[in-house]
Amino acid sequence: MIRADQHRCVLFDVDGTIAETEGHAHLPAFNQALEEAGLDWRWTTADYKRLLKTTGGFERLLRFAAESGHDAEALREQLAQVHKNKNRHFAAIMASGAVAPRAGFRELVMHLARQNIGWGVVTTTSRGNWDALWTYSLAPLGLPSPEVIVCGEDVAAKKPDPEAYLLALKRLDMTATECCAIEDSRNGLLAARTADLEVAIVRSEFFADERFDEAARVVDELYFLQ
Ligand SMILES: [Mg+2]
User: Fold this and answer.
1) What is the spatial distance between Cα 178 and Cα 7, in angstroms, rounded to a whole number?
2) How far does residue 37's CA lie from ligand 1's centre (Å)?
3) What is the pTM of this model?
């Protein structure tokens, strides 16, 4: 799918695509922050799988509040604080070295670099989460720096809205056909496809059973995209 004679930059989603951050870092960080706030909510893996249909950590907290019979609006301020604390816990988990990139990620980026194809990051997670992954898990691998980084704070609408991908193309000054995207979720796939990008799906822990009909390829590991 990735063609050296055509593609100039491969845009990677972060959570689930570059690293299995959801189960190893985001979920435990949410539970730590909820406990700290004195809220009697504990999310299981099954809860989290369902909640991941909502993109954005704060939005996920609001959805859970509403679904479990709480007044989400009344809790808005408290949940904003929970989300802040959650991201602090996430950074601490990342700093502990608990989350490595997925198998084949480093090799794929190096393979692209050898063909003069760059890479970029298009995520609607918070920039602090990306910074933690980059600092503790990716930068030590000696990778070339990404050519573009779009995070949740850069856009008004999260995936599946195409805004993050459209902004990345604008910043790169490239067309959709000069780039392609690698995603692990249906929301991410729809965001990239709506921006006219060709998409490869790498199946991840939390989204493996979603529908990926619009993808050009679906693989189990990043190795297969070399
Ligand atoms: Mg993802």
Assistant:
1) 4
2) 27
3) 0.91
Which residue segments constitute the domains of the chain, with CATH numbers given?
Answer: 9-20+100-225 (3.40.50.1000), 22-95 (1.10.150.240)
Question: pLDDT value at position 2?
Answer: 85
Tens-digit pLDDT profile for residues 118-164: 999 999 988 998 999 999 999 999 999 999 999 999 999 999 999 99
Query: What average pLDDT does the structure give for the chain?
Result: 95
Q: Which of 5, 15, 40, 173 is catalytic?
A: 15
Report helix, strand and coil shares of the chain as percent, to nearest 5: 50, 10, 40
CA 116–ligand 1 middle distance (angstroms)? 25
Tens of pLDDT, residue by residue over 170-224, are 999 999 999 999 999 999 999 999 999 999 999 999 999 999 999 999 999 999 9
Instruction: Give residue 78's Cα distance to chain centre.
Output: 25
Q: What would the mean pLDDT of 39-54 be, rounded to a whole number?
A: 92
Ligand 1 centroid to Cα of residue 194, in Å, is 16
The catalytic residue among 13, 154, 184, 220 is: 13
Distance from the CA of 3 to the center of ligand 1, in angstroms?
23
Instruction: Give the helix/strand (H/E) hosting 9.
Output: strand 9-12
Distance 78 CA to ligand 1 centre (A): 26
> What are the helix (H) ranges across 44-104?
45-51, 57-67, 76-95
Residue 13 known to be catalytic: yes
